[in-house]
Amino acid sequence: MNFAHSDNATSLIARMQSFMQEHVIPAEQTYAAQLRGGADWTQWQQPPVMEELKAKARAAGLWNLFLPEDGARLSNVDYAPLAEITGRSMIAPEVFNCNAPDTGNMEVLVKYGSEEQKQRWLKPLMAGEIRSAFCMTEPEVASSDATNMQASAILEGDEVVLNGRKWWSSGIGHPNCKVLIFMGLSDTSADKHQQHSMILVPLDTPGVKIERMLPVFHTLDEPYGHGEVSFTNVRLPLSSIIGGLGRGFEIAQGRLGPGRIHHCMRAIGAAEFALELLCKRAIQRVAFGKPLAKLGGNADIIANARMAIEQARLLTLKAAWMMDTVGVKGAMSEISQIKVIAPNVATQVIDAAMQMHGGAGLSDDFPLTALYAYARVLRIADGPDEVHRGLIAKLELKRQAKRLGISN
């Protein structure tokens, strides 16, 4: 396994780190102040400073780096450290046009979209001119099992008709969100993995209604938001179907591959930043006549955090290397492993940093609560830990049974 950075990646790492320090980090307070314009989600605005930062990032060549077909043509191993850098700031992914769910939606259109779909939606997404959402999870069923899905996408003549209700549709509250990808049942008589289809839906299509925005840890995550959305007899031309009927599961798996590396490395970046804040506080803060770093078991906490981050990073890089060399299917166990480990490590380290900061760690004076919420959400948003553990165990038992010559 070779995790060494290519010359291209090494150059990009240095440039991105410099850009973060010069432009992104100093702009965070301005962004937060500009965001306070609307008390209601229908009044949310895109902070002007974000568009300024995006223009600077694009001019600097730090744009769409996640997408080999258009960006810097990076491998997963090369992109991983760049994703880690963006994990240090809640606003950084959008600055570089590398934020979810747009990254996954762009990958879908690159791999499965028609030329018409690419021109209408992919081009402005890649230019950062519009935002998008992904509508898959449903409130009435356990969506960790996607075969439970009830929403439908049924052919009627020269149209496809959508009905159902989705929620946790991230990004749908953004004022620049113009399109969403809807996944629904098209043929219940087909094989269970060929029953679903994905449809491109302009947000202003009649029958699409944002019922409410869902708060996470008592915040609406503006200006992106997570919406509950109803679809009532939404009629669209057949040209809105992505890749053809019945390919929803296939497309979903293709969409989830690289994004898993992105999320995990951003979580590791958040953990690394939290550890830096923890150590700074432990060195500078004095209690009972000593720096916090020399009190109780705080040294162990720091050491354990360092080791956990290093282990999580190495495993994520291994998964990225396997995706580059043997593909997503060959790396399924490793991908599921990092989806459990990286967010758990991040939540543990960030929680320790919050504790080291005392009451200040629970306030907005430090970014720790926002980082914690982000990391904790990942343990559900990218599939619950239990589902990933189930797949890991299944693949391990299969491997061991084959080694022992036992039918499994």
TrEMBL record:
Acyl-CoA oxidase/dehydrogenase middle domain segment(s) = 133-234
Query: Which InterPro entries did the record assign?
Result: Acyl-CoA_dehydrogenase (IPR050741), Acyl-CoA_Oxase/DH_mid-dom (IPR006091), Acyl-CoA_Oxase/DH_mid-dom_sf (IPR046373), AcylCo_DH-like_C (IPR036250), AcylCo_DH/oxidase_C (IPR009075), AcylCoA_DH/ox_N (IPR013786), AcylCoA_DH/ox_N_sf (IPR037069), AcylCoA_DH/oxidase_NM_dom_sf (IPR009100)
> Which terms does the UniProt entry file under GO BP?
fatty acid beta-oxidation using acyl-CoA dehydrogenase
- Which co-factor is required? FAD
Q: Tell me the keywords, alphabetical order.
A: FAD, Flavoprotein, Oxidoreductase
Q: PANTHER family recorded for this chain?
A: ACYL-COA DEHYDROGENASE FAMILY MEMBER 11, MEDIUM-CHAIN SPECIFIC ACYL-COA DEHYDROGENASE, MITOCHONDRIAL-RELATED
Spell out the protein name for this chain.
Answer: Acyl-CoA dehydrogenase family protein
